[in-house]
Amino acid sequence: MSCSLDGYIEDAEGKFDFAHPSEEVHEFVNERQRAVDTYVFGRRMYETMRVWDTLDEPEQVMRDYAEIWRGIDKIVVSRSLDQVEMARTTLEREFDPDRIRALGGNVEISGPTLAAPAFESGLFDRIELYVCPVVVGAGKPVFPPGVRMDLRLAASHKFANGTVHLEYAR
User: Fold this and answer.
1) Number of C-beta neighbours around residue 79 at 10 A
2) Mean pLDDT value of segment 122-150
3) pLDDT tens, 119-131?
4) Ramachandran area for residue 55 (φ above 0: left; ψ -120 to 50: alpha; else beta)
5) What is the pLDDT, as a whole number, of residue 29?
6) 133-151: string of b/e by CB count within 10 Å (b at 16+)?
7) Which of 91, 113, 122, 138 has a CB 3.0–4.6 Å from the CB of 12, allowing a cystine?
8) Is the distance from CB of 163 to CB of 131 less than 8 angstroms?
């Protein structure tokens, strides 16, 4: 999950253009995503990410990501969608922690809406953030209110554009 320095994944207008990764960041993300077996995300993230199913991008790093993306199973949790149109994608009406646990493998849950029940149910081993060097002042926070977690820093990586990858473990 990318966020601003002040902890928002989108600004007050719902934009997240501040999080556009440099080639260096994208290559790092690609390498980490190769280990993902299943993505779990909500409707808004689905609508944002479905471009990767058909994207024919001239930049190699983005073509690589599209190939990785197409090879990963996806679960969209949404009450408002009637169907999903991406390959290897299923639609669930409710977030069910037991169903997610039963998947096994490396499961990535993305988006603050699903983060709350995942945190509440203890359904995570680590939290990864790509903190961008920008302050947006307001917007959608990366963490839901009222959730407390004691974590330890497991890894960090600084990029030339000022973005920092932080990985925290329970």
Assistant:
1) 10
2) 92
3) 888 888 999 999 9
4) beta
5) 96
6) ebebeebbbbbeeeeeeee
7) 138
8) yes
DSSP state of 52: G
Distance from CA of residue 30 to its chain's centroid?
A: 13
Q: What average pLDDT score do residues 145-151 get?
A: 86
Supply 94's token pair. 């409710």
- In order of 83, 96, 106, the CA distances from 51 in angstroms are 16, 26, 23
- Picking from 165, 127, 132, 166, the residue whose alpha carbon sits closest to that of residue 20 is 132
**Model pLDDT, residue 112:** 81
Q: What is the four-CA torsion angle of 147, 153, 159, 161, rounded to 10 degrees?
A: 30
Question: What's the CA gap between 101 and 123, in Å, rounded?
Answer: 7
What is the Cα–Cα distance from 21 to 25, expressed in whole angstroms? 5
Strand ranges for 43-133 from DSSP E: 73-77, 89-92, 107-110, 126-132
Query: So what's the pLDDT on residue 48?
Result: 87
Per-residue pLDDT of 43-87, as tens digits, reads 988 998 888 888 877 789 999 999 999 999 999 999 999 999 888
Q: Structure pTM?
A: 0.91
Q: State how far the Cα of 112 lies from the Cα of 115, in Å rounded to an integer.
A: 5
Place of tokens 């988006």: 111
